[in-house]
Amino acid sequence: MDMKSLIEQSKIARQKAYVPYSKFPVGAALLTEDGQVYLGCNIENSSYGLANCAERTAIFKAVSEGVTKFTGLAVVADTDRPCSPCGACRQVISEFCSPDMPVYLTNLKGDLQQTTVGELLPGAFTPEDLDNAGKQKL
Ligand SMILES: O=c1ccn([C@H]2C[C@H](O)[C@@H](CO)O2)c(=O)[nH]1
Ligand SMILES: [Zn+2]
């Protein structure tokens, strides 16, 4: 799937957002290695801190079905600048996607900021950091 189609898919995902509190719908479309697309929207809660962002919804849907290899991510919201993922999502994206994977940040006006996972979170904490750590030395 090409970049434009992935961005279109993120807009379709956005239409499912559950955002009674922020009224700020976000959509994400995550492309897998074998060409499938997982859609995600933000899902809020009356306990506000429990909101799940669109990006993490898409990733958690895929991982929960055993799919962990990704080749692209598109994000869209009705923002002035292309929608910028929050810090929590940047960390979760970094867990599953290689630093050179393209990320397409967009808005409804059609602005596009093409970036990468590594640019979104330079120096991310990784599973390798845990492997290389001293164990049980307090
Ligand atoms: O990249 C982003 C930024 C924000 N949100 C959500 C979280 C919350 O539901 C609403 C307002 O922050 O937007 C996302 O889903 N993705
Ligand atoms: Zn987020």
TrEMBL record:
The keyword DNA damage does not apply. Belongs to the cytidine and deoxycytidylate deaminase family. Its EC number is 3.5.4.5. It comes from the Bacteria. This is Cytidine deaminase. Gene3D superfamilies: Cytidine Deaminase, domain 2. This enzyme scavenges exogenous and endogenous cytidine and 2'-deoxycytidine for UMP synthesis. Its cofactor is Zn(2+). Keywords: Hydrolase, Metal-binding, Zinc. It catalyses: 2'-deoxycytidine + H2O + H(+) = 2'-deoxyuridine + NH4(+); cytidine + H2O + H(+) = uridine + NH4(+).
